[in-house]
Amino acid sequence: MDNFIIAPKQGVPFVSVASMKKLINTLGIETCISALVKCVEADYKRWHLFEKSARYASHSKDGVIELMPVSDGNMFACKYVNGHPINTKQNLQTVAAFGLLADVATGYPILLSEMCVLTALRTAATSAMVAKYCAPTNATTLALIGNGAQSEFQALAMKTVLGIRQFRLYDIDRSASEKTYNNLQGFNIDVVICSSAAEAVTGAHIITTCTADKKNAIVLHNDMITNGVFINAIGGDCPGKTELDSKILQRADKVFVEFEPQTRIEGEIQHLPANFAVTEFHQVVNQQVTARDNDQQLIVFDGVGFASEDFSALVFIRDLLLQQPEYQVLDLITQQADPRNLFSVIREA
User: Fold this and answer.
1) What is the third-level CATH fold of 134-305?
2) What is the per-residue pLDDT for 1?
């Protein structure tokens, strides 16, 4: 990914929700996901180049506000994102997010973008990228536990990348499953709404958990899970928020994470001993370890979302935007004739 410097008088490219919608629909959502998977995977291959840290998180009784920074030495990315499950009671989004991409050499912003939709896309792309390595051979069926804002993106990513055609939905709120069912019509897939998590996982080769409640929960019990499946656990993403019976993790043949220091704080493994063995997924992408040795293994991905994935998504959107004949810019940085004379900005007529 080449660096790109915005000429000062051009302003800062800005991707609004309307612009994001246009970009995705012009490319096509499945094509967009497929391309984004390649970007996320490419950045995992150069994992060692990134300056990494666990995200900054400010917790309250109702949710969390986070900043997620990362740099590859040429560009710096940071996402602001919250998680407030209580927001649905006020008819508000549970997640509100925006992201910034900047040039390391000058500190100048390169891109400012909405990241509610983009986060859903990059999360789905990451799930599909991981599943490509971890799913059993000839997987055909996905159980999707938790049918909120990300569920359709997850389903389409698994269809696009792995060819999954059968989806089994469950949510404690049936209307959420009905919403997902309706949104997935017309995508040439078979969707079934189930009455329990146990019913949903029956016969599934891949199980994705993506629930919203900020609490330690057991969405999947150990006795529900058969050998050979791949569990894509992405809903447990902050301290005090989990989805899996710890016996599943202890029983798993392999447990993969993104950035171990962050996952120890936020992921499914937060309640397990510090010496519980996990493997960072970049080692799989870089062929240092194998994801699955046979189709009888139980594999778990403890995904909490990492900043490098946001970096990949922001650069991907930047490149799409620059292919457009015109795009919106923000007058975000002062452009006075004398860079040292900032006071002149407020004195000019």
Assistant:
1) Rossmann fold (3.40.50)
2) 45
